[in-house]
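Review box. Two proteins, two foldings.
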Amino acid sequence: MTKLSRRIKLGFGIGDLGGNLFFTMTGFYLLFFLTDIAGLSPALAGTVLMIGKIWDAVTDPATGYLSDRTRTRWGRRRPYMFIGSFIALAAMGLMFTNPGLAKQTSLFIYFTLIYCLLNTAYTLVNIPYSALLPELSSDFDQRTVLTGYRMSFAVVGTFVGAGAVMPIVGLFSSPNFGWAFMGYTAGAIMLITSMITIWAIREPGHPEPQKDAGFFKTYAQALTNKVFLLALIPWSLFILGTSMVQGALVYYFKYIFRDEGMFQIALVFLLSTSLIFIPVWVKISKKIGKKWCYAAGMTIMTGGVLIFSLGGESMGALGSCLVMAIAGIGLSTHYVIPHSMLPDVVEHDSVHHNGRRREGVFSSLWTFMSKIGQAVALALNGWILALFAYDPDTELSRATINGIKIICGPAPAVFYVIGIIIIAFYPISKKYYDHMTAGAGAGI
């Protein structure tokens, strides 16, 4: 086993700062921007987000499949990352630019097209980036360490994406200009962090791709891999629930606590504990295994969102911030553990398919399901807000307030609990992995 250098750990890790910045900004603020800044109806705004993620059904698998089969002097993954990061710079700015269109139909078409472009750019960067991890190390625990570096930067990206948005927007007298400036600034950060990863990483050499079963059969094989599904389904459910909470928090603070500025402070509580506990969970995972570590963390998260959503109004903003800090301890596992499980699944697939490497295929499905989870979450948020008669910047009825509470806690908790039950059946432990990679895995 070759020990990874600090340059590789840091260079690989920083790549997810920009990626998580994108994921966080769209999760926390995009629905709010579309409804309260651009003036799109909640139902149409939720539909925009759904369509944009469905578009990923084309771009994610195609990018993963092509990157597996690409051979260039710069490697399999980095050329896609290079192109995608420049597209992301432009698309991120346009996504948060209010075009000033009066008709709902025109707004809907504009934001749908831009959101599809933005997701395509993110796909070109993130799918190849995620596929790099299994290639950098084959060691079970070292992958968790490498993922710890990645997720530490991811939390920094979350801090920036969640905590810097409103302050940047507030620098300008015109909210429209402030949001646009913020969008282009985020796009520039995504570009720079991708370039650092491209420079720092040297991809291993690969022989010419073997003849495979073809695009559709290859993905069908992946989706019938039981071990993969036992990791993928909980990950998707946890993404769905967490994205619902992310998208709802700004509404909770604005309309229930009547303190929109406190939202930024609450995020500091949530994300600080998430960042602090990443190395703690890395150590715990070595003791109890990755799946039990993940299940424990999401159990803490489930309790946190239920207490916050149902008791926050009586506890007040400060008390709720403390609850969010506790929830952040659990959320920390969601950053680090699943991404260290995916390379183990890739190894399992390789053992059972004569050494064939399909990192891009599995990474694309992994990322695709995370985007689908986020899209379904934000669409559900928009539809539930519409169902409970949400009307921006008005005195909300008690029914509407209850609708906001539902999408902050009880609804996400249902998805968390189902995911926790399923992850308990995931089979790859360290003992299983060592047995498998030692050549005895054919019967597993």
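Next protein.
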Amino acid sequence: MRMFPRERAKNWMMKSFVLVMTVLFISAHFSFQKSFALEDVRHTKHNLAVNPDILAGEGNDFVPGGLTSLRGARNPAVRGTEGDVRQNEEVCIFCHTPHGGRSNVGGVSGAAPLWNRRLSSPMAYTPYNSQHFDAQDLTGTPGRPKGVSLACLSCHDGAVAFDALINSSGSGGFFPQNKTFDGPGGSIGMGFSGPAVDSSNSFREGRRASASNGESPGFVFFDGFGSGPNASFGAEPFPNLGLDLRDDHPISMEIPRADPQFREILTNITTKGGRIPGSGAVMWIDRDPNGANLPLDKRDRIRAYASDPSRPDAPYIECASCHNPHEASRPGGQPALSEPVNAFTVNNSLFLRLASRPNPDAQDRNAKSLICLSCHKK
């Protein structure tokens, strides 16, 4: 059948449209996967059930009707006979809970959504201090941990137990004392079999290697193994930051307005990414006033937090300014013991966000010190 020129043109346009839409759909599909596959907490060291340094297990209270960390078939008087909840399938409960969690962590509402953990007292920490910077905000308040940083330290200070949960798995596992009281402890009786765990179910403390003991100088996290990185399965050197934070990057401190190296950030930070001034939302850190260096995925962006409720535009540096605790870290962390690794997982075992500088490396987030230079103008 013969086609007239107009019909041929129409047919060609239709085929071209279908082809273009197909290409766009495929591109969007892979772009969607790449964008949304980065956060996969099951394949990180924060999956405490498969982390070989911690290996969280079930509770050890076999008394029928008693308070257990996991209600299951071992306690049929309370929960029935459906079986114990496997921790590998409930990764999130070690930090979050859908009901009964803390809504105000360290004085900052919403900083750590539905937080499910006991906290240490902010006054228990010794903050960073030096002649060049004193870890204080503009009101003269010492930069003691608050908000999202205090939430991170509820595991990483080595004082609060890994299982210091407010709301445990299953029905009836509510521990109000971990919501009401702060300070060391809070264990609800779960089992841990990893070498990073001490007798109080918290992070073991590291130590300095001693030449008198025939050891090479340096930091040894697991003194029980006594052989440093090769025996620690990747948890060292500093998962346990302790309560003395003087040897760590300052947190819960306001970006200093009087220091010229931060002037470019402070000029545009309150409205970056469409943020409404006074909203108390997170702020993106980027030296380009047009946001040219901001990663497309907001979860990758280096950020400042509104940690002072009375000053919602004051930008504070917190642990989560540079670290994303949900960022998939395989390959690069310990081997996953659950289902196969996501194909789009990046090598990010340090949970680093992506540098707000030109040409960041997604596989080596601090290559050329770009994360450091995203804030510090050196």
